[in-house]
Amino acid sequence: MNPKGTIIFTSVGRPYYGFDIFSVSLPSIIAATTSWKEHRLTDGISVNFNGQFVDEDETLVYVSERTGYARVYLNQANSPKPKQLPSVADSLFHDRPIVKDGRLYFVSAHEPADKHLKSWSALYSTLLDHGKIERLTPYKAVDYSPSISQSEFHELDTDIVVFPESDPTQRTTICKRGGWPTWSGDSTIFFHRQADDGWWSIFRVDLPENFQLSGVCEAPRRVTPPGLHAFTPAASHDGKRIAVATRRRENSFRHIEIFDLELESFCRVTETLNPKFHHYNPFFSPKSGFLGYHRFRGKSASGDSIVPHLELVTSPVKELRMLRLNGSFPSCSPDGDLIAFNHDFDANAGIKIVRSDGSRRWSILKDRTAFYTSWNRTEKNVIYSSVGPIFESVKSTVQIARVTFNPKDMDDREDIPAEVKILTKEETGNNAFPSCSPDGKFVVFRSGRSGHKNLYIMDAVDGEFNGGIRQLTDGPWIDTMPNWSPDGKLIVFSSNRHNPSNVEAFSIYLIRPDGTDLRRVYVAGVEGSAEAERERINHVCFSPDSLWLVFTANLGGVLTEPVSMPNQFQPYGDLYVVRLDGSGLKRLTWNGYENGTPTWNSTTGEMDMDMDRLSVETVVGDRLMGQFDEPLWISCDM
To answer: Record's SUPFAM superfamilies (predicted)?
Structure first.
């Protein structure tokens, strides 16, 4: 039997992207004094990115998430609406499309890899008239952009490979370590990688005339100088220029620049147009008459300008609904009508509550830093949370709070007054991630009071002051993010107890509330296998029937080159469900984002009203601000 209900989760940064694709016309002579004029090519609906020109009329093939997941579209100058191109029906991920000679090439992730912790990304092609979709990537290989790889974190350990489409198995590696390749003619390839001095730079490799016979080429040569980052190159048709995205020391934003290969000089393009926006992944038209890229469309641009509180996302499991929340750590009220969550941890601290149809939102604890929520399962007006800084040491003061409010205040006000009762002692250090028992009498939480982060259970009303407290787990490791099963029989949590020296090697564990029957749920592999020891699993919670678990994990590797994205946390960031014995594993998300902090609700209360409105009505929510950052590992302080 398939899992049922509604899973509510967050995608870090994704609700605020608001990407559109833009272009600038390129004059025959490009100079520092060139006056640029920008033209928007996409219609401001959802997120549009990673485009390529088909011709000099600015016919555009690109990726859009307007249907709830990434699909490929074609824009033509004389057509008012984009055309959806052939795609894989059961794939939620399409990327890097190219149209050439009547064929569409794209990356998809619908076929599972041959083992866990490996990316599903592969290159496919099809005729534009809905022909058969063919896989060009050999099985057991992984292609990005395309380049073959094993998954790592920020700089993928990828090779640059060439092969004839007629026989994709005949691959020749022309360069170790490189990504985002772009052809210049038939014999020169540009690509990016992080140089030995730490700067991301563009390199080129030239193929000799006898390359098809010898398979030997010259060593790559660095093209762009140190002192700035340059990545995601695109070569002009004549081989004289490359367009790149850059990050300079003096600039906090990524911009598109054109690098003259003969003069070895940069011409800045987008910095004069939009100095306070990030710009991504440039591309030339076939004869270099236009330069395209994508960026945040801007707060005043036409198109989608409101981030909905809740967004319906396509689910690969028919019986499951998937809702993306504009916030983190959701939990549902006992009747399912309301969702408590944390909006963010800076400008909008505290707790918020939103209707389960996304139509209205309230604020609680606006003046306090709080993270995580757990609704009391017997009281509609009681929410548990952690008060204090998030993800700090065991000695940092973080306390478990019982937050009580009057539901009648929700009728006529947006800011709800609340009574905050602290349940843990200040001197006990870091206490976080509370989860209420189904009878509402107890709270299980993670505490660092012993010097290690383990689990404790205390009274849900009086906490450890009068109601008492007992330690559930004990050891020199990290037990964290517990969740009580709806039937009350088990508590699930994440732990690195199998490898305490590795603070990223978390797996799923189950334990009874009385401390007995502790066991590990093996998902990535059997006990002792290399895959089992590398799995990173967090944010685990139960299904409403207590038979399934949903969690976020690194089991599917990395689907996109991280340097081509805003701040990105893959491979830790896809949602899965599994039975309590580790069987029935199903992947729920595959994209370039970090998806996490899920909660699982039965489809009761207002959740059963009109689910369609969540995908079409975006008038209730936050203003689209484009609030996202560069990846944390890109530093200009060198």
So the answer is: DPP6 N-terminal domain-like (SSF82171), Tricorn protease N-terminal domain (SSF69304)
> Other CB atoms closer than 10 Å to residue 511's CB: what's the count?
21
Query: Cα-atom radius of gyration of the chain, to the nearest Å?
Result: 26
Q: What is the pLDDT of residue 627?
A: 79
CB < 8 Å & 24+ apart, contacts of 108-115 = 109/556, 109/559, 109/590, 111/135, 112/587, 113/140, 113/142, 113/556, 113/557, 114/139, 114/140, 115/531
For the chain, the average pLDDT equals 90
Angle, CA of 515, 516 and 522, to the nearest 5°: 105
pLDDT digits (tens, 9 = 90+) for 118-173: 999 999 999 998 779 999 999 998 888 753 333 333 455 677 777 777 777 777 77
**Contacts (Cβ under 8 Å, ≥6 apart) of 613:** 357, 358
Structure tokens at 633: 């590992």
Q: Which of 153, 207, 145 is nearest to 178 (CA)?
A: 145
Alpha-carbon span 3 to 9, nearest angstrom: 16
Superfamily of domain 306-623: TolB, C-terminal domain (2.120.10.30)
Give ranges for CATH 2.120.10.60 in the chain: 19-296
DSSP for 518-538, written as a single string: -EEE--SSSTT-HHHHH--EE
pTM of the shown model: 0.93
In the predicted model, what is the mean pLDDT of residues 92-115? 94
* pLDDT per residue as tens digits for the range 306-320: 999 999 999 999 999
DSSP string, 155-206: S-EEEEEE--TT-TT--EEEEES-EEEEEETTTEEEEEEE-TTS-EEEEEEE
Cα–Cα nearest to 494, from 482, 503, 504: 482
What average pLDDT does range 290-304 have in this prediction?
Answer: 92
Q: Which residues make beta-bridge pairs with 5?
A: 320
- CA 403/CA 419 separation, integer angstroms: 6
Evaluate the CA torsion angle 149, 150, 154, 158 in order and state its sign: negative
> According to the model, what pLDDT value does residue 449 have?
95
Average pLDDT on 201-224 reads: 81
Task: Pull the structure tokens for residue 493.
Answer: 């949590």
Question: Mind listing the pLDDT tens digit for each residue in 531-545?
Answer: 999 999 999 999 999
- Is residue 443 within 8 A of residue 460, CB to CB? The reply is yes
Which residue from 514, 605, 606, 589 is spatially nearest to 554, judged by alpha carbons? Answer: 589
Question: What's the confidence (pLDDT) of residue 608?
Answer: 46
Residue 563 has φ and ψ, to the nearest 5°, of -65, -15
Helices and strands, counts by H and E, the chain: 3, 49
Q: What is the third-level CATH fold of 19-296?
A: Neuraminidase (2.120.10)
